[in-house]
């Protein structure tokens, strides 16, 4: 049983790194990520997210508000993403240009 990442050609790893940096830059500079999104983000962690959550609950409690919390854990979230739907959303909702979408489509297929 081999993991797909271990069989990638040597040149694809730097390309993946560059594409990741460009995507994160685009999402960050255009403020397209929720401030509550902590997963896979530099400078964010479960600890800081938990501290923010506890602070928010305390503020609500002090103001007499009820707090509801829903936690979701998606099994195999990355492996079950529809690539065409992802690319469509990246183009229409997140402003990625056609050249970027074409490159990502080529990479994903």
Automatic annotation (TrEMBL):
Keyword rRNA processing: no
Domain of life: Eukaryota
Ranges that cross the membrane: none
Pfam families: RVT_1
Entries under InterPro entries matching the protein: DNA/RNA_pol_sf (IPR043502), RT_dom (IPR000477)
GO molecular function, one term: RNA-directed DNA polymerase activity
Keywords annotated in UniProt: Nucleotidyltransferase, RNA-directed DNA polymerase, Transferase
Domain Reverse transcriptase: 2-94
Protein name: Putative RNA-directed DNA polymerase from transposon X-element
Lineage: Eukaryota, Metazoa, Ecdysozoa, Arthropoda, Hexapoda
């Amino acid at each position: 049983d081999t993991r797909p990442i271990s069989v990638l050609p040597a040149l694809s790893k730097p390309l993946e790194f560059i594409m990741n940096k460009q995507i994160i830059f685009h999402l960050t500079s255009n403020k397209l990520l929720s401030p509550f999104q902590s997963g896979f983000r530099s400078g964010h962690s479960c600890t800081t997210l938990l501290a923010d959550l506890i602070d928010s609950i305390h503020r609500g409690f002090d103001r007499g508000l009820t707090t509801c919390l829903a936690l979701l854990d998606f099994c195999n979230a990355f492996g079950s993403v529809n690539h065409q739907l992802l690319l469509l959303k990246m183009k229409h909702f997140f402003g990625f240009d056609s050249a970027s979408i074409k490159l990502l489509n080529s990479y994903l297929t």
